[in-house]
Amino acid sequence: MPNIFKDEAGGHGGDLTRALELWCPDGGRIIDFSSNVNPLGPPEGLLEHLKESLPDIVHYPSPQARELREQLSIFLDLSEKRLILGNGANELIHLLVIWKRPRRVFIPAPTFSEYERAANLAEAQVERYSLPPGEAFDPRILAERLGSGDLVVFCNPSNPTGKLFSRQKLLELVLLAEKREAQVMIDESFIPLTGNPETSLRKAGTGNLWIALSLTKLWALPGLRLGCLIGPESGMEKLIRWGDPWRVNTLAQKAGLYCLRQEGYLEKTLKLIDQERRYLTACLMEKGVFRVFAGAANYLLVQGTVRGFDVADFQAELARQGVLIRRADNFHGLDQRFFRVAVLQRRDNNRLVEAIGRYMEKFHAGSPEPSEAGKDETGGFKGGESR
Fold it and tell me: 3-state class of 291 per DSSP?
């Protein structure tokens, strides 16, 4: 059973049902730090609004999410001709890669695994470029490897490191790639949650640039799935004319329109994330056994520095205490010392800190000891997220 779940999720997925089966078979609640969506939760009143909209599911949804697309274009200050909406940003990432059929896809390491899955589905050659936590990025070095028909993928801010890269550096990469007749896709799913909208390249408007944006993350709607792709008008015209007209279901469209009307929601979100990211960073650093990488997003990449630390044991022990973290040892370039945690609200963050404290007491006392048994117990479950 564990392997089936693993294959379905592709090594990630924030599958709480499976986590409860593994670690809480007798019942209980798990706080999910493995899925990095808006810690504020959906805007107030959304659930009631969706209940009122349920009768509409007997009709086909608006083609191309017409009304939501119009309102989102205003929200993003872009021509709607440059937008297409989909069943989460992840679906649109796959759509773009399969449609473009690039010769090679350049993917950062470490990063979100779906880029490689999309490239493999498109039968493209995958080439990784190193983007390790805490190190600088030189767009010229990467651009030298590019050729006609290639696609470069970049995630800004990076997942899992949370590092936010400057607009100037990424624009340099886009322009260098354009000279070499290569395409660039930048996943900006977490930029709205950084409070730094000026770093977005969505208005750059070059003919080789595509931007993926997860509204799932922004409005905490992972169960509904909602995202958009921004690109050149000519490309969008083809995708809209020949692609599936009903990518976005009725309830997701209703939810998106409702969320766009909520004034003050984003401001409250950013205040919460900034405050709790600082708090959680300080609490983890105080343990004296972790390195916390500075990030701008609503999650933190953490490295265990104590000898013998193994994230499989760590995840299992915390899960039995009702806290689920994201193992990061399946990201290329990271090992069994790394994990990622979402920034949640104070009560939940305190639960995480307390659970870690209890684990470290046992660890220093000699139990649990890192072992193969600990790894087997997780069934390969590493947690994760979907866009």
Answer: strand
